[in-house]
Amino acid sequence: MQDIQSLIAVPLQLGGDIIGFLGVDNPRANTNTLLILQAVSSFVVNQLGKQRQEKQRMMLSALTDDYDVLIRSDIDCDTFAVLRMNDSYLDYCPELYSYRSLSAFLDRLSHLNEEEYESLHTHVNLESINRHLMQVHALYHNFRLFDKSGNNTTFQVKIVPVGTWPESRRILLGIHNIEETVRAEEK
């Protein structure tokens, strides 16, 4: 038994959510325990916020550095905005900038290669993205596309949550040409 006769606790709030409590058992009378707890909780929450932001920054940096196409979307609103696209991807999907919804883009992407339609359509749709990101921090799926000349190229789509998931349900979707990697592995 801990012999706790009194307790003072303050909430740890991050982004409007209570993520925990910080407390002191049996505080001494007439001390500034509450003020000290509030100051320490502010420090703890600040550090946790910085850690979350750094983790998010690292994930976003990896996407923006390595991916040929970068798309921002809000799953709840089904919004779609192309943030960046290399010209080489235009051979596969020249109408990319014309899409206004993520679901329309994903449906079009599925139809670019009829052989892989079922796999891409099953693994990369709004429902599966939401379900997958509730469990892990990223969704990956490889697929092949054919250019106008009939040459196929292997791409990888990577989807990561942005902000506090699942409350915000915003994502970044990156598409990366992994053909060289695939060919090297085949040798």
Main traits of this protein?
elongated, two-stranded antiparallel ribbon, 187 residues, alpha+beta, single chain
Question: How would you characterize the overall build of this protein?
Answer:
It is elongated and about 80 Å long. The protein has a five-stranded antiparallel sheet with strand order 4-3-7-6-5, sandwiched between helices. The chain is built from five helices and seven strands; from the N terminus they run E-E-H-E-E-H-H-H-E-E-E-H. With 187 residues, it is α+β, with helices and mostly antiparallel strands. The model has no long low-confidence stretch (mean pLDDT 82). 37% of the residues lie in helices and 29% in strands.
Radius of gyration: 23 Å
Arithmetic mean of pLDDT: 82
How many DSSP-defined strands? 7
Query: Which descriptor suits the 3D outline?
Result: elongated
User: What can be said about the biggest beta sheet?
Assistant: 5 strands, antiparallel
Helix share, percent? 25-40%
Structural class: alpha+beta
**Helix segment count?**
5
Low-confidence stretches: none
Secondary-structure map:
Layout: E1 7-14, E2 17-25, H1 33-66, E3 69-74, E4 81-85, H2 102-111, H3 117-123, H4 126-135, E5 139-146, E6 152-162, E7 170-177, H5 179-186
Q: Briefly, what is this?
A:
It contains five helices and seven strands, in the order E-E-H-E-E-H-H-H-E-E-E-H.
